[in-house]
Amino acid sequence: MSIKQKINRLPVFVRALIISVVFAVFLVVVQILISGGTISGYISKIIILVGINMILTLSLNIATGYLGQLPLGHAGFMAVGAYTSAIILRAVPADSAAALFPVTLIAGGIMAAIFGLIIGIPALRLKGDYLDIITLVLGEIFRVIITNIDSVLGFDFTYGARSLKNIPKVTTFIGTFLCVAITCLLIYTLIHSRQGRAILAVRDNEIAAESCGINITLYKTLGFTISAFFAGIAGALYASYLGILNPASFGFMKSIEILVMVVFGGMGSMIGSLISATVLTVLPEALREFESFRMLVYSLLLIVIMIFNHSDKMKRFKTVAIDKIKAVFSKKAVKGAENEQH
Amino acid sequence: MNNTKMVPVPSRSIIPERDSDKAPILEAFNLGIDFGGLTAVDNFTIAVGRTEICGLIGPNGAGKTTVFNLLTNVYQPTRGLIMLDGKNTTGKSTYQVSRMGIARTFQNIRLFSKMSVLDNVKVGLYNSTKCSFISSVLRLPQYFKSEKQANEKALELLSVFDMESHAYDEAGSLPYGAQRRLEIVRALATNPGIMLLDEPAAGMNPSETWELMENIRKIRDKFQIAIMLIEHDMNLVMGICEGIAVLDHGKIIAKGDPEQIKSNPAVIEAYLGKKEA
Fold this sequence. Notes:
The complex is a heterodimer.
Chain A: H1 2-36, H2 41-66, H3 74-91, H4 97-123, H5 128-153, H6 173-191, H7 194-204, H8 206-211, H9 216-242, H10 252-265, H11 270-286, H12 294-309, H13 312-341
Chain B: H1 9-12, E1 26-35, E2 38-48, E3 53-57, H2 64-71, E4 79-84, E5 87-88, H3 94-100, E6 102-104, H4 117-124, H5 133-138, H6 141-160, H7 176-189, E7 194-198, H8 206-223, E8 226-230, H9 234-240, E9 243-248, E10 251-256, H10 258-262, H11 265-272
Parallel strand pairs in B: 3-8, 3-9, 6-7, 7-8
Antiparallel strand pairs in B: 1-2, 1-4, 4-5, 9-10
C-alpha cells in the first residue's frame, strides 16, 4: 500500500512543477509580446478581462458547483470589492498606488467576504428558489446603496451614478494572471481537504452530512463567504482595470453573465470554468464585425454550444478523448520507467 | 446505575445479561411526537445495552423511521427524554448528537454519490480528523499527517466489508448492495457508541442478507458497539436480534427476546389482524 501511495503522490508534485513551469513561460512570453507591441493594446485589454472573468467564474463555481447553491447576486460582491479597493487607491498618493495594490486587492476581497458572511447567515437558512430570490434582491440592494449613499452621507463617497473616476489603472497582465493562479491553487487545496469534503458532502446530501457530524450551516456560510471573497478580488482587479466605476455595471445582468459562464463550463469543474470564461469573454469581442447583429449571433452561438456541449454524443466524445490522452501519457510513463530500468 | 426508579421494568427486560452491569448506551423515556394533530409516536420507552443488537419492527407506517429521526434529533420530540451514553440530548442538533456517539443509515440510501467511496468514508471520519482550515488551504504538515491517518483508517474500515478495491470508484456507481454496505461503513467511521440501521437488508437477496447478518455480528464484536435495526426481513431480525421492540400505530405493543415476540398474541394481531370469533 505504501508503494501505491508513493506512486499516487509523486505525480502530484511532478504535475504541479510542470504546470507552474508552463504557466511561468506563458506569463513571460505573453508579457514580452505585449511590451514588444506584437499583441496590440486592444487584445491585451481583452486578455486581462479574460483573467478577471476567470476569477469571477471560479468564485461563483464555489457556491454553485461545490456548495450546490444558486446565488443570483454575485455581481454585488464584485461591486463591494471594486469600490473598496478603488476608494482606498484614490485616497493614497498616486505614485504608491501600484505598490499598495496587492493590499487593496486583499482589502476588497475581505470586505466582500464580510458582506458575504453578513448576508449568508440569514440567507442560507432558506433553500432552493427562496435562496435564489433573496440573493438576487440583496445584489440589487448593494447596487442601489452604492448609487444613493452619497446623499445619505452628505459627502462624495462612491459618487453614485456620476461614476467613480480617476482610479489608478494598476491592473497588469501578470498581476491578473498571478491572481488567477493563486485562486485556482487555493480553491483546489480547499476542495481536496477535510473542509472541502464537508462542503461537497453538504452539496450531495445535507441530511447525511449532518448525521456524519458536519455542521451544515457553518460550511454553507464558509463556502458562501469564500465565494464572495474571490468575487471581491475580481472586483478590485476590475476597478483598476477600467479606471472608472459605475454602479449600473454591477446589476442583475452581470450576475447572470457570471452564472452563464459557470453553467457553460460545467458546475464544479475548474478547467471548465477557465475555458468558458475565456470563450465567453472573447466571443462577444470576436463578433464585433456583425455590428448590430452581434448580441443576436452571440445568443444563438450560446444556445448551439450549450446543446452541443451537453449532448450524449459530445459527452461520449469527451470521455473517449480524455481516455486517449491519458493512454498516451501512461504509455510514456511506462516507457520512461522501462528506460530507467535498463 | 441506580436509575431503576426512572426506567419502567419492560424496557430493561431486553438488555442481554452481559450488558446488565453497565449503564445502557441509549435510553428513551416516554418519547412522543405530534405532527399537527397526529400523534406519530407516543410513550416510546426503551433502553439499549452497550453491545446489544436490538430490533425495531412493526407494520408499515407504525412510526419506526420516525423513532430513528427522534433518536438522532432530526425531529425534536414533543414529549419525553433521550439519554445517550448518560447525557441528555434535548435541544441538540443532529450533528451534535452525531458527535455524542450515535450514527445511522437511511431507508432510502443517502450517499455522497458524486464523491469517491474513500471520500465518503473520510466524510464520516470528519470529527476524528484534526486539521485546521489554514493547514488545509496552505497544505501545512498537519494536513499531510491527518490525510494519511484518514486514508489508512478509511481503508481499514472499508476492509471490514472487503471494499478496499472500490475505494476510488464513484459512490453513485456502486451496485445497490455495495451502496448499503458503504453507508454502514460511513456510519462506523463516525466512531459511534450505537448505530441505527434503517432497513439494511432492503432489496437484498437471501444470500446477501445472510452475509449482512454475519457482518452485523462481526461489527458488533469488533467495535463493541450497540446496533439497533429496523427490518422487515424476519429471518434477519429473529436471527441476530437479542431484544426486539414491536411498534404499532406509534406505540410499543411488545418487548422481549425473539421467542417471546414470535408467540405474543398482540404482535400476531398487529401483523395479521384479529382472529374471528
